[in-house]
Amino acid sequence: MSAVSTAQRRKSAPARQASVLYDAPGPIARRRNVVLTVVFSLILLGVAYFVVVNMGEKGQLAPEKWKPFTDPSTWTTFILPGMVNTLSAAGVAAVLALVFGAVFGIARLSDHAWIRLPAGAVVEFFRAVPLLHLMFFAQYGASAVLGITVLSFQAVVFGLVLYNGSVLAEIVRAGIRSVPRGQSEAAFGIGLRKSQVMRMILLPQAVTAMMPAIVSQLVVLLKDTALGTIIAYPELVTSGVRELDANFGNLIPAAIVVAILFIIINMALSYLATWFEKRSRRSRKSSAATLGPALAPPAPGMQEQQMTDRTEK
Amino acid sequence: MDAVIENLPAILDAFWLTIKLTAISAVISLILGIVLVAMRVSPLPVLRAVGTAYVNGVRNSPLTLIMLFSGLGLGTVMSLKFSDDLSVQDFWLAIIALSLYHASFVCEALRSGINTVPMGQAEAARAIGLTFMQNLRLIILPQALRAVIAPLGSILIALTKNTTVAAAIGVGETALLMKNLFELEGDSVIPIFIGFAIGFLILTLPTGLFFGWLAKRLAVVR
């Protein structure tokens, strides 16, 4: 039971809204709320007015700055190709990161120390290094050491896979560990082997529990493709903001449009995550506690208990 | 290894910049996050709507885009001026972007913390006649804050690593320096990379351990 959820549940009565944090307003409070609403609205409108006036002074509201967006050729030459590059890098990286995460997440649970410890070291290392360093390393390291040229696409995917794969490995590990012990004990009891227990009992239940956390990590992955602009990968920020600005001098309008595109895609993905969470909570197929979407694994060195913390409070 | 030792002063300078970016942005985003969470649970629908829109918008945009928006949009187009010194100017523009971005995560962490405070606490507070602000300030937020120390630590660690995105607007932090060193000393790419990775491990591991310890120590016993 929680303060905020009650507030949301009672949204059906908007006029006399109450929450744990405040009572249903009486006549005086209602009058005060009206006054405060007017005051804060004026302040917010003032801020908006200030922003708009300043943008107007710098010519960012001029029709010709926004006109490119009504021209289909702007979309076909700049925004859509950038979008395709962003989505293809994110798509390839997501698939590889899921494989990486599954392999290393299971390896970290291995009974053999010679598998468990190196896998743990790899995961913790790549979680601690900033993504941009990994991308620069991919670009320069491969050409310096192996003598091959790395495309910016490959460098972006390399960084995304290692970093997000490591986070996913932690999610997989937490998901498998959230399946109650009785499940694997019963499986061993009926004579299944270790690999069978993992494949037939633990993973199917863990996947249901992990789904929301995985989807929200994929949102992070998609957002991180934007780092590609720093290593000259022609993704959405490069082509939709920088190149558009170079052609039309409309940086702020372009940034707003590209931000809206990212927000739409990511909110759709987040919606998917909450849908998965609701569904897996409803279904009785898995005995594992659902890992909430906001419950990213703790950073390296952090206490473990946070992760298996049940989201249902 | 020689390449790392020779360039140690420059590397330490870059890491010092990372620490400064992290510390200042952490303070600003904590304050902004508390303001946002107060807006999101407030009795006024206007403030709730604005807070929700801000958090959803910022959380779903890439930091790189916000960084470019701050650096080029606010800095160049809107000519927001902090200093005539270009490096100081870019430093503060990077701080704006980092603070705006991470404030939304702080807000969400605190909101989930408010969820852990038992109903009875807020009800008792209302029963003795506390107003919404008093309730939030004296009863709810102190308990919520103590419940989300560990997630806040994770955000701080993410912030430490995200300072590298300031490279997008040319702040001379670790990622740009590493790239320059790669170009200068092409034959020792791996030692340089490992050196920078160790630098980040040194920054993030103690932070993680400290916040883990703090979270346990400050946990509200229920």
Structure description:
- Chain A is mainly α.
- Chain A has helices at residues 3-9, 27-57, 63-66, 72-107, 113-128, 131-146, 152-177, 181-189, 194-224, 236-248, 251-282, 305-308.
- Chain A is flat, with a radius of gyration of 25 Å.
- Chain B has 222 residues and is mainly α.
- The N and C termini of chain B lie far apart (52 Å).
- The relative contact order of chain B is 0.15.
- Chains A and B meet through helix 1, helix 2, helix 6, helix 9 and helix 10 of A and helix 3, helix 4, helix 5, helix 6 and helix 7 of B.
- Chain A: Keywords: Cell membrane, Membrane, Transmembrane, Transmembrane helix, Transport.
- Chain A: One of its GO terms (molecular function) is transmembrane transporter activity.
- Chain A: It is a multi-pass membrane protein.
Tag the structure with descriptive keywords.
heterodimer; A: about 325 residues; mainly alpha; 2 domains; about 0% strand; flat; B: about 220 residues; MetI-like fold; globular; membrane (chain A); cell membrane (chain A)
